[in-house]
Specification:
Enolase-like, domain 1, 11 helices, 449 residues, 3 domains, FAD/NAD(P)-binding domain
Length: 449
């Protein structure tokens, strides 16, 4: 059978874009469909605009510290609307760059919502396109709890389009999205309350990291309500009233309520059943180690699958799929040493095993080195900022299983350590490495039991 394309990609997020361009480099005829802006959640409603807001918030925090460093006091004003316009203009330049990259690679971009007619046919805007291989890379979407008044709440998608900064912000969910927005908005002067179903935020991270971030944010007067969930939201007298249930039964007044309780795969309208593609919990596409679905010629990568929901992971999965199928070089993605970060202030980052996971797997042979200290940056101020560094090691060799950090530049430091940990470094390797003084990263080389 003759097909229109060798590969048809549904979804132009990081995974889909990487796969499309890589497949084209192997000489494949490739098309990619996207119903919204190119770049997916990361570029348009996630990593990129979020990091720009983090950087704007950092300037506010630095301004607060400036007096301690000898700068005279001066009046400042933050124009939220002007800032957001700059963010969206920058995102437009990224869209243009991606479009040019696709054109240069010879990838055809088709605008519209793709659905599967059968295992080799994609339908978009009442037109049909056939392909030998199909890659699904449609990402995910933020979900909301089913409680009365939830229509008054917004998700991270709408946070980047707020017409004004709220004076009072309530956040439902203490995962990395909720925590990052709590930190940012607090720096801009918002009164922030975070409601989480656990006692401590950032479930899944190492316990010392979770405690370190929550303590740091609490010092900035962010309020945490733990072991609790949202019960209902009411609109009253030009304000929102959020009622909680659980350990704390409170009513919180807010101008804006952000729901950050997780994401679900964006697969509901793909008509996957037409092609024999099976899905699991919350609509996640079931794939094997080579990103193959239950349909022989259909593959899936990124947040629409049952694997790690991180932009670099989606990109790596897209490249590995193409190398396997079009490059004839079977490639799997290693999920054991994937670094991750929380761009709050204090910042947190991790790679490898948490202490709990390590003890679960290796038992009594696990040892941890952990240190807390005040970074040089805050030592001239009246703020008792604390950094936390921790490594998890195993056995007589003390092979490093994981590294975790709370403090300035945590993401960059852990990113560098990730390479070394993948190569099997030991605690002795760290001890014998000479650091750069005075830096925070140096502390990883000076740790004692």
């Amino acid at each position: 059978m003759t097909f229109n394309y060798d590969l048809f990609v549904i979804g132009a997020g990081p995974g889909g874009l990487a796969a499309a361009k890589k497949a084209a480099s192997y000489g494949a005829r490739v098309a990619i469909a996207e119903k919204e802006a190119i770049g997916g959640t990361c570029v348009n409603r996630g990593c990129v605009p979020k990091k720009l807001i983090v950087q704007a918030a950092d300037l506010a925090l630095q301004n607060q510290m400036a007096l301690s460093y000898g700068w005279s006091d001066c009046e400042t004003y933050f124009d939220w609307t002007k800032f957001l316009n700059s963010v969206h203009q920058h995102i437009e330049t990224i869209h243009h760059s991606y479009f040019e990259q696709l054109q240069k690679a010879g990838v055809e971009l088709i605008r519209g919502d793709g659905t599967l007619r059968d295992a080799h046919t994609v339908e978009i805007n009442q037109s049909e396109y056939t392909a030998d291989k199909i890659l699904i890379a449609v990402g995910g979407y933020p979900i909301k709890p089913n409680i009365p008044g939830i229509e008054y709440a917004i998700t991270s998608r709408e946070m980047f389009h707020l017409p004004y900064l709220p004076q009072r912000l309530a956040i439902i969910g203490g995962g990395y999205i909720g925590v990052e927005f709590a930190s940012m908005m607090n720096a801009f002067g918002c009164e922030v309350t975070v409601i989480d179903q656990d006692e401590t935020i950032l479930s899944g991270f190492d316990d010392d990291i979770r405690i370190g971030v929550q303590e740091g944010l609490s010092k900035r007067r962010i309020r945490f309500i733990g072991n609790s969930t949202a019960k209902q939201i009411k609109y009253s007298e030009e304000r929102l009233l959020l009622t909680t249930t659980g350990d704390s039964r409170k009513t919180i007044a807010a101008d804006t309520i952000l729901v950050a309780t997780g994401r679900a795969p964006n697969t509901k309208n793909l008509r996957l059943e037409n092609a024999g593609v099976e899905v699991g919990e919350k609509g996640a596409i079931q794939v094997d180690e080579y990103s193959r679905t239950t349909a022989e010629n259909i593959f899936a990568v990124g947040d629409c699958t049952n694997r790690l929901q991180l932009t670099p992971v989606a990109r790596a999965e897209g490249i590995a799929f193409v190398n396997t199928v079009f490059g004839k070089k079977p490639q799997k993605v290693d999920y054991e040493q994937v670094p991750s970060a929380v761009f709050a202030r204090p910042e947190a980052a991790s790679v490898g095993m948490t202490e709990a996971k390590a003890r679960e797997k290796f038992g009594a042979s696990v040892k941890c080195y952990c240190d807390r200290f005040q970074p040089l940056l805050s030592q001239l101020t009246d703020k008792n900022e604390q950094a936390t560094i921790k490594i998890v090691v195993e056995g007589e060799s003390e092979r490093v299983l994981g590294a975790h950090m709370v403090g300035e530049h945590a993401a960059d430091i852990i990113q560098s350590l990730a390479v070394a940990i993948r190569k099997g470094i030991t605690k002795q390797d760290l001890d014998e490495t000479i650091g750069i003084h005075p830096t925070t990263a140096e502390e990883f080389l000076l740790m004692s039991p």
